Amino acid sequence: MKIVGITCDTDHKRNYLNRDYIKKVVNMGFMPLIITPDMLIFRDWIVKNISALIISGGGDIDPQFYKEKNTACKNIVAPERVKAEMELLQSLLPTKKPILGICYGMQLMNIFLGGSLIQDIKSYLNHREGNHEIEILVDFPLKRGKFIVNSAHHQAIKKLGNELEIFCKAEDGIVEGFYLKEHPFFVGVQWHPERDMGELSLYLWQIFSKSIQ
Which terminus of the chain, N or C, has less C-beta within 10 A? Predict the structure, then answer.
């Protein structure tokens, strides 16, 4: 049984993870392992035994992690979560195991590779809720075309991280997906495919599943 790690949100008393992530991993035929910041003392075991990693959604990353002052962040993610996921990425990246970042997870991956964020999107599109259209610009990792996805964020990619390539955008130019060059599957998406039954999200889970060795 292959294990897929899923990071979760945390505060001083509880850990949080939407059940949709767990259901999606189970439905793909894998065993989910929920990874909390406290579990990073077992980082070597985790890196060795998981076959893939999902960095789940969350709130705002403190701008100090990309060397900016906070001008618009309110729902700040616990620093221990951010640091734990950074450490996990540092150890997991050389293994070439699949890594999928979702919403906050995509933003964290961007910061990890030296990028930064728009702290509050100003756009004619409503990125905070509902659905909108995105366009896949290249054939990797998904097929070209225009698709409707859900949206639940007010921050987005500003400076793109090192060696990352954009593969899709919203019509207002907001980055909706990227991948890491020279890596089999290091993909970040701004929407929430775990709770979306659209064509694009289903295809994303298919290629993620196929990438797991």
Answer: N
